[in-house]
Amino acid sequence: MEYQQWIEECSLLCGWLEKQLRKVTDSLLRSSGFAFYQEGCNSPLTGIIARNAISRAISQLDYPEQDQSLKKPDDSYAVACVTQDVIDQVDRLNMIKAEFREFHERLRSSYPTGKEGTDVMRLVLRRCGFSRLNLENADRLIPTILAPVSKITWHYNSSQPSRRRTLNDAIVELRTLQDILGEPTHDAIEEEITRLEGRAYSGNLSVAQVLRSASVQSLRIAYSYMDSEGSRQRELTYGKNPAFVLDRNLALECLPPKEVTGNGVAKGRGRPKVISSRLVSRFLRGWYHYENPPLKKQSSNRKAQNPHAKTGVPGIWFALNRHGKPVFAFKSTTGSKTTRSILRYGIKGAWKYAVDHMNSQPPADVRNGLIESAPTEESLERFLESCR
Asked: Which residues lie closer than 8 Å to 190 by C-beta, 6 or more apart?
C-alpha cells in the first residue's frame, strides 16, 4: 500500500514539473528581452537563438549517459532578461522542484539504508514513466534576479566535501576499529586513544572528516548592481542553471569564467584553506585537524562597537551606509556582508528582508517570531543620535 502511495505522489509531482516547465519555456520563447548563452569555449549566442538554447538547457532532466543520442554537454553560462510574468512562472517551477526534492528525500529516508531507499525511488520513477530522470537536475533551482543588474560573471569554486566532527567522535571510531582489527593493532590503537583523551585535548574540539579526497567544483554567478542610494552591491547565486533576470532595459555585461575565456584563474578568489594536513590519528583515514586561525592584531585607533547598533538578534545590526543613511547590516546566506535601506523599505520591511536572508537561518516558527520583533523607531533614533 505504501509503495502505491509513493507512485501516486511521484506521478502527480512529475506531471506538475513537466507542465510547469513547458509554461516556463513557452513564456521564455515568447519574450523579447536580452538573452545570452555560451556553452564551454564556443562562441556566445544571443537573441532568439540563445533563448532556444536556454529552453533546451532547463528542459534537460534525463541522464545523458543513458542515451547515446544525448551527448553530455559542457557547462553553459546563460542569462535571460524577462518580464515579471515569466519570473512568476519560474518561481512556481522552483516551488514544484522543492516539493519534489522533499518527496524523494522523505521516501529514501523511510528505508533502513540509503541504497534501499534509492533503489525504491528508481522503481517508483520507472513505474511513473520517468526511469531516466536525473534527480539532481530535477532538484536544481533556477536562479531569479530582481535587482537592476548591470554585470553578471561566472566563476568556479572548488571545495573538498567534509563533515565537522569532534575528538570524541574520533575516539568512538578508534574503539570500533579496535574491535574490528583485533589483537595485532589493539595496543597501538589504545595508545592513540590515550593520547586523544589526554589533558592537552578537549573532547569537543572540532576536527574535519574529509568524505572524498577529490575536490568538488561548483559554478557560481556573481552579479552587481547599484542600489537606490547609489551604492554598488554584489551578490552570489548558483550558476549551473541559466539565470532569469527581471528586464529593466539596462545594458547587461556577461563574463564567463576566466578559465573559459583564456585569461587564467582569477587570483585572490575563494576562501582560505581551513583543513590542515595534520592527521587526527594514523589509524583514521581522512580525519584532519582544522588550521589554527591566524591572530589578527586590532588597531589601537579602531573605534569600539556602538552599543546602540545592536538589534537584539545576533548577526543583524544598525549601520550607516557611505551616504550616512541608516541600514540594517547582516551577512547573507552566501556569507557576504549585505545591507537593506531603512529609509526606502521602512523598519519592518528592511527588517523582514534581513531576517529572511541572513546567514544563519532559524526554523520557520522562530523566524516568524524574529520578524514580529522588529526594532522600534525609538531604537533607531537612539542609534542615529549616538552617531552624531
From this structure: 178
> How is domain 2-157+236-256 classified at the CATH fold level?
Replication Terminator Protein (Tus); Chain A, domain 1 (3.50.14)
Q: Each residue of 153-181: b (16+ CB within 10 Å) or e?
A: bbbbeeebebeebebbbbbebbeeebeee
Domain regions of the chain by residue span: 2-157+236-256, 162-211+274-290, 307-387
In terms of C-beta density within 10 A (0-12 exposed, 13-18 middle, 19 or more buried), how is residue 76 classed? buried
pTM here is 0.58
DSSP per-residue string spanning 17-42: HHHHHHHHHHHHHH--S-EEEEETTS
Task: Write out 257-294 in H/E/C secondary structure.
Answer: CHHHHCCCCCCCCCCCCCEEEEECCCCCCCEEEECCCC
Partners of 164 in the β-ladder: 208
- 70, pLDDT greater than 80: no
Report pLDDT digits (tens) over 252-274.
Answer: 889 888 877 766 555 545 455 67
Contact 207, 288 (CB under 8 A): yes
Distance between CA atoms of residues 83 and 60, nearest Å? 23
Q: How far is Cα 225 from Cα 228, in angstroms, rounded to an integer?
A: 10
- Written as nine digits, the cell of 304 is 569600539
* Sequential DSSP letters for 177-216: HHHHH-GGGHHHHHHHHHHHTSTTS-TT-EEEEES-SSPE
Q: Chain-centre distance of CA 123, in angstroms?
A: 30
Per-residue pLDDT tens digits for 97-121: 999 999 998 898 888 887 888 899 9
Measured from the Cβ of residue 278, the count of other Cβ atoms closer than 10 Å reads 12
Among 354, 358, 360, which Cα is nearest to 342's?
Answer: 354
25-29: long-range contacts, CB 8 A cutoff, minimum separation 24: 25/55, 25/58, 25/59, 27/82, 27/85, 27/86, 27/89, 28/54, 28/55, 28/80, 28/82, 28/86, 29/55
Q: What is the C-alpha to C-alpha distance for residues 332 and 341, in angstroms, rounded to an integer? A: 15
